[in-house]
Amino acid sequence: MAHINAQRGPHSTPQSPFLGEVLAPDRVRWTPLQHPSCGCVVDWGWDGFSSPPPFFIQWCRDVVHFACPWHGGQTGRPDLNPPVGATIALRAPAGGIYYARPTPEETAVLGIQLSEQLRCLDALLERGTDAVLDAMPALFRAQMVAHGYEPVSAWTEQRFADIVLSQGRESTTIGVLGEPHV
């Protein structure tokens, strides 16, 4: 188990982001994600004291393209049989500490869905601005334009936040948006 200092958290070496097996703080929020290269679904955790939400969102967008930590992704240390209930800590390149644990069976399907949503949204961004504008809800686009916001970045940032931080629940519903003020 990694040494944990109450003030600084787990320690890593400069060469490795792997901080070891730890007890995750109670304030950690979890998001299940599938790693298609190995098929595992992992609960990724973070807390706002360690890292701001946009950093964790970007971390999740990146990790879905690699093997899980137990199959050599992020840690570089394959362990094909993670201990039941094991939680590991990893230091992100941009700073902050993220946690990983095997996903409980009841949220594995959600992890597969969330990973697919992340990959689809990234693929949509690769297709360009027109593709994103066509995919976003017309009412959202009208509201953003009416209030002087750039609709593509506003919608994609909101969708990434919904996927990662709200486990796929959309926060921009018709009830929230209301009618556009033009």
Main sheet: strand order: 3-6-7-5-4
Mean pLDDT: 80
Helix and strand run:
EEEEEHEEHHHHH
Counting DSSP E segments of at least 2 residues, the number of strands comes to 7
Low-pLDDT stretches are: 1-15
Question: Strand fraction band?
Answer: 15-25%
Q: Which class best fits the helix and strand makeup?
A: alpha+beta
Q: What separation lies between the terminal Cα atoms?
A: 58 Å
DSSP helical segment count: 6
In short:
With 182 residues, this protein is α+β, with helices and mostly antiparallel strands. The chain has helices spanning 53-63, 108-127, 129-135, 138-146, 151-165, 174-177, and strands at 4-5, 9-10, 18-21, 29-35, 40-46, 88-91, 97-102. The protein is built from six helices and seven strands.
SSE topology:
Layout: E1 4-5, E2 9-10, E3 18-21, E4 29-35, E5 40-46, H1 53-63, E6 88-91, E7 97-102, H2 108-127, H3 129-135, H4 138-146, H5 151-165, H6 174-177
Antiparallel strand pairs: 1-2, 3-6, 4-5, 5-7, 6-7
Helix pairs in contact: 1-5, 2-5, 4-5
